[in-house]
């Protein structure tokens, strides 16, 4: 039997070597991939476990907050009842009014302690709690929105005065939501006019934008096509006057406004854009419960 030439043996050996190298590379790649998958699975398991612990912890905190809130509401109701009783008893028995006042003070201190516990739990739940924005922070808000692409013009009428922190936060959040909507629906280049009107006890905030018009112009339409799309008639005018604009953002702004005795209206101007108006008739003295000036005269 004739032997194969040496070159054939070398070719066969070379081919087997190449196959072996390819198989080795594939095996190493597979082994590396399996190790990576096991490592990723282990990380996912750790993350899931941490998430479950975090959810359980937050659930516990919320449960405690809810319970403390219920206790506080009950105590505040008791304070109101005791105050009413003291008012009637004081007319005939001054000592009864003194005893009731002492009880009210003790109940109030206990309620305040519970509220502080609630705030402690809330702050612990926030890893990095930033200070709440105030009206002075609107300058930074306007700058941020201008950097994002809005053209914001601000007007202020009347003499401004300090508000309590809750009222200032409400006004800030309303402005933040309104400007965010202008940027969302109108896009880069939308012109926004913000007007603050101060009265002796109230404040009106209005935000007007040209989001509709700007969104159409940004599409690069010809002047005729843009004019046709922005045109409107009696039907559109009637709809803008009667249609109630709704949505989660509008509802939140309305809730913040009503909390301080105000009213919020959201309207659209056909062919132009949106308008948000928040009117607070007595925000200067409003504390989220009433809007009466309790200062001594």
Task: Describe this protein with a few key phrases.
5 strands; alpha+beta; Heat Shock Protein 90; 5-stranded mixed beta sheet; 2 domains; transferase; single chain; 297 residues
What's the structural blueprint in terms of helices and strands?
Elements: H1 6-89, H2 94-125, H3 138-148, E1 151-157, H4 165-186, E2 191-198, E3 203-209, H5 211-217, H6 223-230, H7 234-242, H8 248-259, E4 263-269, E5 273-280
Parallel strand pairs: 1-2
Antiparallel strand pairs: 2-3, 3-5, 4-5
Helix pairs in contact: 1-2, 3-4, 4-5, 4-8
Describe the structure.
It is a single chain. The protein has helices spanning 6-89, 94-125, 138-148, 165-186, 211-217, 223-230, 234-242, 248-259, and strands at 151-157, 191-198, 203-209, 263-269, 273-280. The chain has 297 residues and is an alpha+beta fold. The protein has two domains: 1-129; 135-280, 2-Layer Sandwich (Heat Shock Protein 90), CATH 3.30.565. The protein has a five-stranded mixed β-sheet. Strand 4 (263-269) and strand 5 (273-280) form a beta hairpin. The longest helix is centred in the N-terminal third of the chain and has 84 residues, at 6-89.
Q: What is the number of domains? A: 2
Query: How would you name the CATH homologous superfamily of the largest domain?
Result: Histidine kinase-like ATPase, C-terminal domain
Estimated structural class: alpha+beta
How many helices? 8
Give the integer mean of the pLDDT values: 78
Largest sheet: 5 strands, mixed
Radius of gyration, rounded? 34 Å
Architecture (CATH level 2) name of the largest domain: 2-Layer Sandwich
The CATH topology of the largest domain is: Heat Shock Protein 90
Transmembrane segments: 6-29
Domain Histidine kinase/HSP90-like ATPase: 168-281
Keywords: ATP-binding, Kinase, Membrane, Nucleotide-binding, Phosphoprotein, Transferase, Transmembrane, Transmembrane helix, Two-component regulatory system
Catalytic activity: ATP + protein L-histidine = ADP + protein N-phospho-L-histidine
């Amino acid at each position: 039997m004739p032997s194969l030439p040496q070159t054939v043996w070398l070719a066969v050996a070379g081919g087997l070597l190449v196959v072996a190298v390819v198989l080795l590379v594939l095996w190493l790649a597979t082994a590396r991939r399996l190790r990576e998958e096991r490592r990723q699975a282990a990380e996912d398991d750790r993350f899931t476990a941490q998430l479950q612990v975090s959810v359980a912890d937050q659930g516990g905190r919320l449960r405690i907050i809810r319970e403390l809130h219920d206790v506080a509401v009950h105590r505040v109701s008791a304070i109101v009842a005791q105050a009413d009783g003291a008012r009637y008893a004081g007319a005939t028995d001054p000592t009864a009014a003194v005893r009731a006042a002492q009880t009210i003070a003790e109940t109030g201190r206990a309620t305040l302690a519970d509220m502080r516990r609630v705030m402690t739990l809330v702050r612990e739940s926030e890893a990095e709690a930033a200070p709440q924005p105030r009206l002075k922070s609107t300058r930074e808000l306007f700058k941020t929105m201008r950097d994002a692409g809005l053209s914001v013009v601000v007007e202020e009428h009347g003499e401004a005065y300090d508000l309590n922190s809750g009222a200032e936060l409400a006004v800030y959040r309303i402005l933040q939501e309104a400007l965010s909507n202008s940027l969302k629906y109108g896009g880069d280049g939308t012109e926004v006019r913000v007007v603050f009107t101060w009265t002796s006890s109230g404040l009106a905030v209005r935000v007007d934008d040209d989001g509709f018009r700007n969104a159409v112009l940004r599409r690069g339409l010809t002047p005729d096509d843009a004019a046709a799309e922005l045109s409107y008639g009696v039907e559109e005018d009637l709809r803008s006057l009667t249609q109630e604009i709704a949505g989660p953002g509008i509802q939140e702004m309305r809730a913040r406004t009503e909390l301080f005795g105000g009213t919020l209206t959201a309207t659209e101007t056909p062919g132009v854009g949106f308008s948000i108006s928040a009117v607070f008739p007595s925000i200067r003295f409003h504390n989220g419960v009433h809007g009466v000036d309790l200062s001594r005269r």
